[in-house]
Amino acid sequence: MRLSILGATLAVLSRVVTAAPLGERTLVVVDSTGDIAEVGESISESFKSRGHEVTVSQLKSAPPLHSFGERAFDNVLIVPGKTKGLGHNFGAKQILDFFNEGGNIVALTSGDFSPAALRDAAAQFGISLGPKGTVFVDHFGSGKIGVDESSFRDSILTFTGPVSVNNSGAGLLTGTSKYAFPFVRAPVTAYAYNRLLDDGEDSGQIAPFVAGSRGVLAAGSQGRNGARFAWIGSSDLATSSYGDEILQWAFQERGVLRIRDVKHELAETGESSLLYRINDKLKFCAQIEEWDSEKSEWAPRQGATDIQLEFKMLDPYYRLTLKEQSPGQYCTEFQAPDQYGMFTFLIDYQRLGKTFLHSANVVTLRPNANDEWARSWTITNSWVYLSGLTTIVFAFLIFVPMYLALPPITKPVGKAEK
Amino acid sequence: MDVQNAQKLLRIAILVLVAGAAVLSRLYSVVNFESIIHEFDPWFNFRATRYLSSHGFDSFLNWFDNRTWYPLGRVTGGTLYPGLMVTSNVVHTMLSKIGIPLDIRNVCVLFAPAFSGLTAYMAYLFGCELKDETAGLLAAIFLGMAPGYTSRSVAGSYDNEAIAITLLMTTFYFWIKALKLGSVSWAAACALSYFYMVSAWGGYVFITNIIPLHVFVLLLMGRFHSRVYVAYCTWYALGTLASMQIPFVGFLPIRSSEHMSALGVFGLLQLVAFADYVRAKVLERQFRLFVVSFVVIVVAIAFAALLGLTWLGVIAPWTGRFYSLWDTEYARIHIPIIASVSEHQPTAWPSFFNDLSFLIWLFPVGIYICIQELRDEHVFLVVYAVLGSYFAGVMVRLMLTLTPIVCVAGGLSISSLLDVYNQWNVPVSKAPAVETNAKVSKKAAKAKEPADAAPEPKEVQGFFASFKSANITSSISKVVVLVTFFGYLAMFVSHSNFVTQSSYSSPSVVLASNMPDGSQFLIDDFREAYYWLRMNTPEDAKVMSWWDYGYQIGGMADRTTLVDNNTWNNTHIATVGKAMACDEETAYPILRQHDVDYILVVFGGLLGFSGDDINKFLWMVRIAEGIWPEEVSEGRYFARGQYRVDSEATETMKNSLMYKMSYYRFPEVNNGADRVRGQRLSPSDAPTLNIVDEAFTSQNWLVRIYKVKDLDNLGRQVPAAAAFDRAH
After folding, report:
1. Class of B525-727 per CATH?
2. What is the pTM of this model?
3. Cβ separation of A177 and B728 shorter than 8 Å?
4. What ranges do the domains of chain B cover?
5. Which CATH superfamily is domain A257-366 in?
6. pLDDT (tens digit, 9 = 90+) per residue, A18-27?
7. Do the Cβ atoms of A217 and A168 come closer than 8 Å?
8. For the domain bounded by A10-250, which CATH number is listed?
9. Which residues pair with A77 in a beta bridge?
10. Which residues of chain A neighbour B726 with C-beta distances below 8 Å?
């Protein structure tokens, strides 16, 4: 008991300084052999100021992502350098395992640094990164890539002003994952090619890695478990206001939702159960909250009109839009179908850049019990049979005494008639 | 002590011994294995009984089972025959009331043997009604021990049939009584026991048809009598009303075609009774005209009504099981799910000899004796014999309904034989003249009995009477015949004992095999796997398996299943069949849609257990093909007309989920040799699994359990994710 109070107090205390709801143990892995290393260090400073517990480490001496089978950090920022590999602590498998256990990952590359482990990992997220030396060029700009409003198509970022990006690594959404999305697209006039293969002559022979707005300068993905992955292709972008936004998103300071207090009950009595009857009036409610990183607390998510409830057994019998009843509490009422079986109250809310909400509750709809049907006399059709029944009962009651009491008909009478 | 009392005492002693023999011979399964519920259906009955004893009758009646047929559920209370569960629950309660607290499981395990003792007693009463006490006692011991009945009633075989045969005999006994005496009270007793039978077993339809048929035959023979009228009308009215109280039966007795003969005969009896009345009132010539026109009109109307109502769907169409009774090929062609059940297959000839021993050739003799006598009750026996033999030939499981009549007929013939050959103190030449009226002679014999100390020779009737005139019953021939038949009887007992012990006492949950040194080796993989499921999976986990194992998973592992042995929904079973038969990409959405957490397959390749899922696989394919002919096709699973599982197997076969789950990692053991199919998988044939993970494999690989993977966290296709995991 005392321990739990202590734990709650600690939790409250830690919340006060927490920017992200899920954790702030942040590891920044920097390879000082590259010139983008200092970007990583400056980013880590800004996270420190936001309350993250930042560990900055050189790649060679970086601690493993897991210790004793447990995830050791919540967020990881990887800033590679000239070193070819990332070491066995940061293989694609380790990165994905970390992600699958709920850890957030940001990879910062550039045209010069694009290690294979990161490329392998990113490929699993549906983001294909160009190999070392692949850069975006745009012959219509001044050697730099100009980011304008059109670059933010399908993005969760909003355009706030143009940025010029130099020496950007190239990315491409392969479509193998439905969760990957672009942060910043390349301009239509840009293309990416591998300048290491360019020997100055006959450069037309080198096929571009990607061309036009199919290329991305930064992209991200969110797992079904809510963990986030972001890749930023250049230090120019990372240090811009967009980079800041991407990092905040990736480290779960923005767009974090949660669903709680999911309840279903009989609409009339408010009685909750796992067993309802067919045709019962049911009510479903769920509290939906969003993390407010400035106040470091969960605030009700208000005004959403796109949250839907499915009541399904194999197929949805109902798909209803939830209405906000009180701040953050979304409810709906409906009549259960005239079909028994095991039904699921399903909320599967997936919006770009927001935490996926998933809630499934299986309840049983049972048929009417033998004593729950209407009584016969309340059904008008049955009156015919009921009157038949009573007539026979009365006729019997009259007939038997008469038969017994009246003297038998003597035979001679019958014969005489014949 | 006078002779009559001594005879009575002897009869009681014999009956007690017969019941004892019947019960004890059924305990081999407990002795050889343990007190365990057998097979498949009994596990459901056991589970239902436990539900009844813990929740009470009201909730049992309205039981909606959300642990099976996920996500459809089953209205179990309304779709089962509650007689068995209610009876054993009453027994359980009564035993605990009188201070014998017995575990409900033990009540269930010992239920069938206990009722077989009762069946033997009913056979005795039945035999007495047909001939005399000797026939009754013989019928009792025959029915008590005949393997045909034992096969469904050993200890642990807690199935509806265990109680149903007792009730079948009771109902028939009451029917004979009612018919003989024309008694309303006996007919009411018959209706009551019929109601009990309806509440206990779907095979009650056998009674529903055989009694009307009996009456109909009597009518054709011109034996209409007020006794017949009273007995039948009382039985039909009361019995039908009572049977409609069982929720599962409901309005079937007036709607389904299987019940129409009873209704038809009921109507016919009214007409015949009416005609009888009219005949007493009018002249012969007028009457003939009246009858002919009347019959023609009535038959025409009735036939048109039957056709019309069936066509309109008011009368339920004939069910597939019923069709397969007449046309043995019907099920194989039209309803694979019925044909896939081994007990619905036609009976093989040897099993008649195996199940009935020497009774199979005494049976025709008994029937012949009946035809010789041909009183009303003998007509019943003949009708029963004809129907029973036909049905037993069509379906293996209906051997059960044939056994009682065979035993009774056997009892009749042997007792007739004894009547002739077991008379010692009377000179043969002075045998009294044969009397034609059996009843009179019997009564006379009975009346004489107390008078003489030595029993007067009984009148030998019918068939064997003809031997009387020929002087064959010398002492030597008597001794020879008696010794021979004593030998047959002894052989019968030893044969029955042997068959019961060796063939019918296996629980099939635990398999037994012999070690090289002759000691018994128990293969307990099923329970191992079910226990693993019970202990290691979440309580609401959904387990998919072929329907054969549904009841066992529900009973032993207590997990939700998709399909089970109730097989009420062919489409749902076909869905499971499709998931098993298709490749992983097709199967995965089906598994996700049905919230499947675990898949259980039975694989006998390592052990040589031939009843495994790969051998049943073709049924899954066929049943799935019935619903999705364009997606599943049986021919694609055959490699050049052969059923191959090794490297020769077709691509469709190799890609099917069932194949992959069965042979996953199999080449690692036993050199990949499949002992059932006699084929060998090389390591290069080893399947890879993408959408499921191996969760458990039992000691002898008999049961393999796989966990269905969740959707990929990264949003990849599951096979792609699996490929990445394999590569890293």
Report:
1. alpha beta
2. 0.85
3. no
4. 3-319, 525-727
5. Macroglobulin (MG2) domain (2.60.40.1930)
6. 567 767 788 8
7. yes
8. 3.40.50
9. A28, A106
10. none
